[in-house]
Amino acid sequence: MAGTFETTAAIELVRTRSLPALVQEEIIRMIREGELSRGDKLNESGLAATLGVSRGPVREAFQALVESGLLRQEKNRGVFVRTLSTEEVVDIYNVRAALDRLVGETVVLTVTEADLEGLRDLVARMDEAAAKRNIEVYYPLNLDFHGRILELSGNSRLIAMNRRLIDELHLCRRRNLLEESGMAASNEEHRRIVDEIAGGDPEGAGSAMYDHVTAALGRQLRLIRDET
């Protein structure tokens, strides 16, 4: 019975989403979860075989992800996971900081007590993961936290723009959380965000969101400096 349900769900998913879009999502997941790292070469036929699709959807997914900035294509060499330059990292974080300020200011006007409880629960769970330095648990919770706040803004354009930046930041964001005390510091900033949103002050919530992103940029730049 379970197998029938899973098959039906899979068929429905394919009906409602194109294969190239599903392949894109899988590649993004692999980057997000560290299965693919910056500079890694992607094998079109191998990925197609792994996902059980033809090479066409994979080729289309590669092209879309090249256009969105997650992958790069080199003539006669293939497709690779992009490595962001320091200047690109700074630019992306700065744009996201500005957008997140607007998110914080907007969410204050729509958030409910149930929403706040959900955010506090995520912060508590991230505290546990940070104490164990468990990035495999912390990182998805971190994404969920920011995703929920973004959805609460109710601004579809803001959501789309922010998600694209978040996808690009998967190329480096996970690594800065592995910096010593990176997860703990990040989660203290999350706690401040929730407190400011709960306080009902749009300016305070916007500033907390902005400061969190700029602090993350600082951690990222320290990591880049230490690696050079």
What does this protein structure show overall?
- The protein is 76% helix and 4% strand.
- The protein is mainly alpha-helical.
- The chain has two domains: 2-81, Arc Repressor Mutant, subunit A; 86-227, Up-down Bundle (Four Helix Bundle (Hemerythrin (Met), subunit A)), CATH 1.20.120.530.
- Residues 1-16 have low confidence and may be disordered.
Q: Strand order, biggest sheet? A: 1-3-2
Distance between the termini: 55 Å
CATH architecture of the largest domain: Up-down Bundle
Give the overall pLDDT as a whole number: 87
CATH homologous superfamily of the largest domain - what is it?
GntR ligand-binding domain-like
- As a whole number of angstroms, the C-alpha radius of gyration is 19 Å
Report the portion of residues in β strands.
under 5%
Keywords, separated by commas or semicolons:
about 230 residues; mainly alpha; Arc Repressor Mutant, subunit A; Four Helix Bundle (Hemerythrin (Met), subunit A); 11 helices; disordered N terminus
Chain-wise SSE layout:
Elements lengths: L1 H15 L2 H14 L8 E2 L1 H8 L3 H14 L2 E4 L3 E4 L4 H22 L5 H19 L3 H18 L3 H14 L3 H5 L4 H18 L2 H26 L1
Antiparallel strand pairs: 1-3, 2-3
Helix pairs in contact: 2-4, 3-4, 5-8, 5-11, 6-7, 6-10, 10-11
Short account of what is shown:
This protein has 228 residues and is mainly alpha-helical.
